[in-house]
Amino acid sequence: MVRVSGFREISLIVGLGNPGKKYADTRHNVGWWFLDRLGSEYHFDLKPETRFQGLFSEFLFEQRVIRVLAPTTFMNNSGRSVAPCASYFRIEPNQILVVHDEIDLAPGICRLKFGGGHGGHNGLRDLGKSLDAADFLRLRIGVGHPQSASLVTNHVLSNPGVRNLALINRSMDQSMQVMNLVISGELERAMHHLHTRDQGHLESS
After folding, report:
1. Which domains does the chain have, with CATH numbers?
2. Is 36 in contact with 68 (CB distance < 8 Å)?
3. I want to staple 123 with a disulfide (CB 3.0 to 4.6 A). Which of 14, 42, 43, 78 is the partner?
4. Residues near 201 by Cβ (< 8 Å), separated by ≥ 6?
5. What is the tens place of the pLDDT at every residue in 58-67?
6. Integer Cα distance of 44 and 9 in angstroms
7. Can you tell me the distance from the alpha carbon of 52 to that of 153, in angstroms, rounded to the nearest whole number?
8. CB-based burial of residue 157 (10 Å sphere; 0-12 exposed, 13-18 middle, 19+ buried)?
């Protein structure tokens, strides 16, 4: 089982995406889709919070307050939302879970990763700069790769199609099953459970 050094129990969950109906159903917004599932499971509703330039809520988990944030700054400026929120509640980067789309994983695959680079993801890039740290937890939700770097922007800003959407939804459901472990700081157990599941393979839409 993987041992993760430096990780702490989660106090802030961030779902990355872009605001507006134009982007609501695009691959880049899977972080927001995941927060919808989280809200249903833990009984909270996200509401506008001007202090953090995002949609914000809280819920209780084992007598701890967990904060939830969906930045509405657009993906490239996600840090302008997350950094003020983390600062206000005195939350360290290693207490933050960031949920985002991942082109290097096929639809149907989700992976947890603590720390590391941004891999070309503009939301992660801005978060790293704003937090001045990379040691936050990521839930990487696979959306597939268009096979050409020149097509990546159009790919993530488009609808995944019925088949791939079903795979993405299934992988998010499986990720929800380990959220209690993640939030409570049992990352090794969560990784073992999630990463050894047969989460399906890429299907063309």
Report:
1. 12-195 (3.40.50.1470)
2. no
3. 78
4. 106, 108
5. 999 999 999 9
6. 20
7. 26
8. middle
